[in-house]
Structure formats: C-alpha cells, structure tokens
Amino acid sequence: MPGVRTLVVWYPDWPVVAAGHPPEVPVAVVSANRVVACSSAARQDGVSQGLRRREAQGRCPELVVVSADPSRDLRAWEPAVLAVESLTPLVEVTRAGIVAVATRGPSRYFGGDRALAELVARAVDSAVVAAGWRGSGARVGVADGRFAAELAAHATPVGARPEDLRATVVTPGTSAAWLAPFPASALGRPDLTDLWARLGLRTLGEVAALDPRAVLARFGEEGIEAHRLARGLDERPPAARVPPPDLAVSAELDPPAERVDTVAFVARALADELHEELGALGLSCTRISIEGETDHGERLQRFWRHDGTLTAGAVAERVRWQLDEWLRSKSEGVGASGGLILLRLRPDEVRADHGRQLGFWGGSALGDAGVARALARVQGMLGPHGVVTAVVGGGRDPAEQVHLVPWGDERTQTHPLGSTELPPWPGRLPGLAPATVHCPALPAEVRDRGGDMVAVTGRGAISAPPATVSIAGGRGLEVTSWAGPWPVEERWWDDRARRRARLQMVLADGSARLLSREGGRWGVDATYD
Amino acid sequence: MFDTVVGVGSTDSAPRRSGPALAQGFGGRDQDARRPGLTALATRSAPIVRAAARLLEVSPELAELLPEGGLRRGSTVAVEVGAAPGSVSLTLSLLASASVAGAWCAAVAIPDLGLVAAEELGVVLERLALVPWPGEQWSLIVAALIESVDIVVLRPPSRVRRRDASRLTARARERGAVLVVLDGATRTARWPEGADVRLEVTGSSWSGLGSGCGHLQGRDMTVTVTGRRGATRPRSGSIRLPADMPSSFLQDRVGALDTPAAQVG
Asked: What pLDDT is attached to residue B169?
C-alpha cells in the first residue's frame, strides 16, 4: 500500500528569509561555525551547507554571516502555517520552512491536487509577503508519502515569472518509480547511504529493489525505515494538529439577575457542564475566562487561573467571587450597572489532563511543569525578555562570560561536546568570580601616595602602587592589598577594539573590587560582594 | 535500602527473631519482648522528613548556623545588606545545595547578579530564572513565582508596602516556597515584615591578595543568624567561600603565586 497522499510546502532558505535578508544578498546562517543555510546569491558564489564559516567567507568575501536561531525561524514561519490552516485543518509542521498536509479531503474539495497545490502556494506566498519577509517563493510537492512529497517540492524548478505555478505533482501510485532515479543520499542518512554507496547501491531504485527481509537482517531498524522510504511508503503517517474545539458554555438569565445567590445556582450548573465536557475530551483547564453581559449592554470579562486543575467546585467558587465583585460595585459605578442577562464560561488555557500526582512526602511530581507555567505567566506580564536564564561561556571579563537567553529559548551549548570544562581563555581573570557585576562600570579615581592619579603604561605596567580609591565621587578609601594589572587588548583588527588593564583591590572597608582602566579613566567593573 | 526492605516486608518475623534474646532481659513476657522491635519498626517506617517540617538542604557550615539546620519550606529569610560586604555571596551559597538537589530558584530585581560567581558557588544555572527588571509590579511577579518556584530571591527595587510584604510572606507559607529577601540594599526598600531567619555578614576577610601580587582566592565571613521562636539569641559562625578551599592551603599559596605583569615590566 503506497504512502498517504501528502502535500508538502517548502520555502527555500527559510532561515535566511526569517533573518530578514532578501535572496539577492549573499547571506549565510551559521551554527557552531558551520553554514546551515545560505541565500541563492551566496550559493552562486560557491557557498554550501556544511561549509566552515571561514571557508565560506573565503569563497564569498562580501558574505553576511547571521547566527542561527531556530526559535526565530519558527516564530516567523507561524503566519504561513496559519495560511495553510485556513485552507485545510490537519496541518503538520515538521520544522521552520516546511508544512505537510494530507491531501485526500482538501483535494476533493478544491478540485484536484494541482488546484490545491496552487492555492496553498499562493496562500503561503501572500502570508510571507504580508508578514514583511521576502524570499524566492514557496514550492509545493504532492506525492504518495511525505518523503516523496518533500523531494517533489525540492525538485520543483524556479519559475521564470513569479506567477508560474511552482508545484510538482506526482501521479498517484507512481511515487516509487518517480523516486527511483534519485541518489540514495536524498534519504538524509549519511552513515547508511555512504555504506550503501560503497556496496554499489547509488540510487533509490537500486535500494528499493532489495528484499526488505534482507535489509532488516543486515541494517536493522534504521535500514528498514530508509528502505520503506525508498519504496515510496511512509515511515510514519502524518500526525495531525487539531484546532481546539469551542468549549465555552453559557446560560441566559431571564429575568435579569440582580443578586449573587440567584446567579450562583446557574454558575454551579454551568461549571459542572464545562467540567464534564473537558473530562470527555481528556483535557483540564488552567485558565478560565468568566464573561457576563448586563441588560444595559455592558460586557464584563475576567480571567482566573489556577496552578493545578480547576475542578467544577473551584470554577463555581470563582464565578461567585467574580459576580460578587461585579454586582456589589454597582453602586460605585465600576462594575455592572444593570442586572446580568448572560453568563459564559470559556476555558482559555487547556492542556492534556495528566492527572496531578502528588509526591510521596508532599510536593508535586509535576514540579517542573508548574515552574514552566509560572515563568510563562511572568513572561506574559513582562514580555519574553522579562524572564531570562544565564549561560556561562567564554570571555575575559565577568560580564562577557554570561550570555542571557529568554526563558524557553534553547540554552546554547557553549561547551565543546563531551567535556564539561571550558577551553582555556587567555586573558581571563584568575581566581574567584565577583558576585556583583556593575553594568555600566561605576566611575572611580585611583590615586597613589602622593595624590596623583595612577596610570597604566602602554606596556602594561602601573605608574605607582595605588593608595586610595574613591568610587562614584565618594570618600577616598585606603587600598589594603591589590594585584594586577592584567592588561587585555581585544579585537585590535576592527573598530570594536578595546584596550584595558584590570586590578583587584581590597579596600579599607573590607570590600574587594575589580577596577579597570580604559581610555584614561578608572571604573569599578565588579564587586566581590 | 536493603535494611528498609527487611524491616517493612517482614513485620512479623523481625521481632520474633530477636524474641528469645530479649525475652531473658525482660522477664520472659512475649509482649514486652515485642515492644522494642515494634519501636524500631515504627522509626524505620516513619517518613524520613515530616511533611510539615520539610527542609531544603544547605551546606554543612550554614546548617550549623541556621536554627533548623536548613531552609524550612514556607519560611521567609532576610539577608541583611550590612556594613560588611558579602551578602550576595552568602545568598548564593544559601541556594547552592538545594539547587544541586533539584530545587528551582528565581532572582527578582537583581540585574547586577554575578552569574559566574553563582555557578562557582554551586547554583545550577539551568534552574535559576532571572527577572532582572520587574518594574513597578514586582510584588505581583514575586507572588506568581512563589506559586511554583522553590526559592525566590528578591531585592526590593522600591518601597515595600506592609500589605504587600505580609501577602508575599503568607503566600510563601501557603505554597511551601522560601522567600529570601536581600534587605536594606537601598535605604527606602526595607522589608517591613519580620523574617523567620535573619542573616547578616558581620565580618569578612580576604585571602590570596598581596600588595601587587597574587589574586583573590577565598574569603572568610563571619555570619550572625537571628531566628524566631526560641532561636532569638544571635548565633555567629565563620564560613569559608568557596567552601572546598582549606585556609592553610591559601596561606601557603600566596607566596608561591606567579608575579603579575606589573612586577616584571
């Protein structure tokens, strides 16, 4: 049985598009010093995926290098996914730049694979343009099975004019034959296909001709998966993203309710109804919107959140509190001015109900999920950069060594694989790290015994031992012990050059400071608080 | 592990086995002979830590000083930013053991926190969330974090209203979180509520730095702890940071250190 008839939308060089660069500028997106994507202009100059950054820059000197950011790519891709979702409901996103749809239903509705492909391509293109990105346009492939459809999308030629249809449709049932001439390396499993190439299996057709039992015996699970793909079958059926059903429940109140206790009965019944509906779907609600309408046409709405799951009783209780507030403040002119005619409960945030397993000695087994929710909530209040997490990497100063990433984004791996230690970083300060890092540095004055400003010479020598320090215009404090200077000269080859010398000092008040002299000025970079 | 299995699994046989030996000492009555065995069993099967007094682990040096030998869940801890420096390092070392044991921490309104130092002192950065600039609604944000994060460190950025403070303390008690307040960093932002434990660095001395040579290697801090409810008498003790560096080692090393560039040039 051939694979499920699938349509794949592929947007070429999506990481480059999402970085905001048009295709005619030579751009390379780099991760871990290797090119992961490049624009067509860069490709013409010989830049390709997997190239080292230096080599890519050597081949194309005017290359713009952008660092890879998968979460940015996905965020930018979302409008395109929504555009496809507006045509057909079951959409699967594999990664940024690729969307797969099972075509059986939509093709019948829109009048064939070709018509559907055309519609989808135009929808994605206009969504991308509307979001302010510019690229070479989406390509669409339709075939039996996802793998064949993705290859078909890749094999679609660039049309000479923008209105040309950029889609390849493989006739149903012929995917295996269509795949046969492609090289085996298209499977994207280099270890396996390198071995096959050495065994003389160079095309997918040659691979497909093998006996599946022999492939399984010799190459195991991975081998048989690749073999299935080569035969135009599915590795696995596309998983579906189902839009959440409308779960709101509401009740009309006639005559309009003026008192809380009359509504409270209705609220209890509504909460039970909602709870049953959610339970039938295996969902639980963590945030609920309580909405009311009055006979004066006012609309009132308030969100309530619960750390765990809102039970029917908890919902009813919250509705009661909320109504109490609305109806009581009537006299003060802030809440409802008339009686309530409609009450609606709408679950705003639902998640799969895993149950809530409490730890053996108290504490929640889902502790991490709870933390994630709390942090997401704070991010909702402050924006994504409001909650950050730190990754310590290489650098010469305490401030440089820390890289802050928004919570939820990937913590970039700065350590080389397999080692927990950072590689040596020449010019790094020895000893303890300071517990307080001043950014920007506090201005300071460092004087010697004679009262003259202490200087550091071009060769990194200090003019006289420091005797007193005054910080931010404060009183002069005696220096009890000190060490340094540790000179550092960075990026002397470009316009971000920095030259400075650092000293550690313990002052008379017992505080230890890290001072630096840069451009003829002293500053307190950090305090060992 | 094996011990527990025997004790719990063989409720009957364990006391019986020790029966004859004990019977002689207790006048031969079987019931008496069973009692010590049952007591032993009861202690074995009791929870290791009672749910009410769950403690978050701290380093042994700090455990000696703290009235309960750890950070009790639901308590509020104030770290006084006093005359002697070291309050931030002390706070970080309070978090370290719990963080290694899997607790989640958050630092609110401390934009200048030295994160390399945090890692050095043992805080696991993957489980440390930072909210450097919470703005005016910091008390709402702390309240949201207390819901699920185990330890929340706060340096109040503006004046603290008594109502906010008591609400946060109550919320921490209810949720079993520990609220650590860096108190007195600015003159206006005092914590108006009492704290269950109050720590203050009363003395600090550095080692490793000479005059023009060496580098900062370690410090000795004198920490004074005041508690509540029968622990109001202040206790002080000395703490060495980083903990794994013996003091004699530091003294020896100062002379042998490489001379920095200043002395050469």
From this structure: 92
B228, B194 contact by CB (below 8 A): yes
CA distances from B263 to A464, A506, B211, B251, B255 (A): 11, 19, 11, 21, 14
Can you tell me the distance from the alpha carbon of B37 to that of B14, in angstroms, rounded to the nearest whole number?
7
Q: State the Cα–Cα distance between residues B221 and A435, nearest whole angstrom.
A: 14
Looking at residue A120, its amino acid is V
Q: What is the dihedral of CA A230, A231, A236, A238, to 10 degrees?
A: 90
The CA-based angle B93-B97-B99, given to 5 degrees, is 95
DSSP string across chain B: -HHHHHHHHTTTHHHHHHHHHHHHHTTT-HHHHHHHHHHHHHHHHS-SS-GGG-EE---HHHHHHSTTSSEETT-EEEEE--SSS-HHHHHHHHHHHHHHTT--EEEES-TTB-HHHHHHTT--GGGEEEES--GGGHHHHHHHHHTT-SEEEE---SPPPHHHHHHHHHHHHHHT-EEEEEETSSSS----S--SEEEEEEEEEEEEE-BSSEEEEEEEEEEEEE-SSS--S-EEEEEEESTT--HHHHHHHHHHSPPPHHHH-
ipTM: 0.71
Nearest to A346 by CA among A295, A289, A402: A289
Structurally, at CATH architecture level, domain B54-253 sits in: 3-Layer(aba) Sandwich (3.40)
Q: Give the gap in angstroms from C-alpha A514 to the nearest C-alpha of chain B.
A: 10
Q: How far apart are CA A170 and CA A7, in angstroms?
A: 10
Task: Please state the length of chain B.
Answer: 265
* Domains of chain A by start residue, with CATH: 5-169 (3.40.1170.60), 175-230 (1.10.150.20), 249-352 (3.30.1490.100), 436-527 (no CATH)
Q: Which residues pair with B168 in a beta bridge?
A: none
Q: Quickly list DSSP for A406-450.
A: ETTS-----SPTT--SPPP-TTPPPSPPPSEEEEEEEEEEEE-TT
The answer to whether the Cβ–Cβ distance between B210 and A481 falls below 8 Å is: yes
Please count the other Cβ atoms lying within 10 Å of the Cβ belonging to residue A217.
11
A407 touches chain B (CB under 8 A): yes
Q: Which of residues 306-335 of A touch B (CB under 8 A)?
A: 307
pLDDT at residue A417 tops 60: no
Of the pLDDT bands very low, low, confident and very high (cuts 50, 70, 90), residue B168 is very high
Q: In this complex, which of B51, B210, B218 lies closest to A361 when CB atoms are compared?
A: B51
Planar angle of CA B139, B144, B149, nearest 5 degrees: 115
Confidence at residue B250, expressed as pLDDT on a 0 to 100 scale: 41
Q: Is the dihedral of CA B221, B224, B227, B231 positive or negative?
A: positive
CB contact under 8 A, A390 and B130: yes
Residues contacting B237, CB < 8 A, separation 6+: B61, B64, B65, B222, B223, B225
pLDDT in tens, B170-187: 999 888 899 999 887 776
Window 427-456 of A, Cβ < 8 Å to B: 429-439
Q: What does residue A364 show for φ and ψ, rounded to 5 degrees?
A: -100, 135
Domain boundaries, chain B: 2-45, 54-253
The pair of structure tokens assigned to B173 is 């008690």
Retrieve residue A119's tokens.
Answer: 């519609």
